[in-house]
Design a protein that fits this description.
By secondary structure, this protein is mainly alpha-helical. The chain is 85% helix and 0% strand. The N and C termini lie far apart (47 Å).
Length: 107
């Protein structure tokens, strides 16, 4: 059984990783997917659009990453594959929710 200090430190690091993963998803992966899917005719247009949305969503991404830290103890009980799946799913849901909030509230 890990110590309380290690669990708290791990939870903080996991929350930070979710934030960085969601931001990386918005700045790197989503523009590439949107361009490859043909949603934008120019690569720079896709990058600019999703980078702007992600920049608007950064405070919301941070706020949504904090609750993810509370799931750290549960995630540590999973296998490595389960941890990776939970992390990727959490980062994607965090970005989608943060971007949706930013678009609807900030315009």
């Amino acid at each position: 059984m890990p110590s309380t200090t290690r669990m708290v430190t791990g939870a903080i690091v996991y929350g930070l990783l979710v934030f960085l993963g969601a931001a990386g998803l918005g700045f790197l992966a989503v523009p590439a997917i949107a361009y490859a899917a043909g949603l934008f005719t120019i690569d720079t247009e896709a990058r600019a659009t999703f980078s702007f949305i992600t920049l608007e969503a950064l405070p919301f991404l941070w706020g949504l990453s904090v609750p993810a830290a509370f799931s750290y103890e549960w995630i540590m009980r999973l296998s490595i594959a389960g941890r990776a799946a939970a992390y990727l799913g959490t980062a994607m849901v965090t970005w989608v929710a943060g971007a949706a909030i930013a678009v609807f509230i900030l315009g």
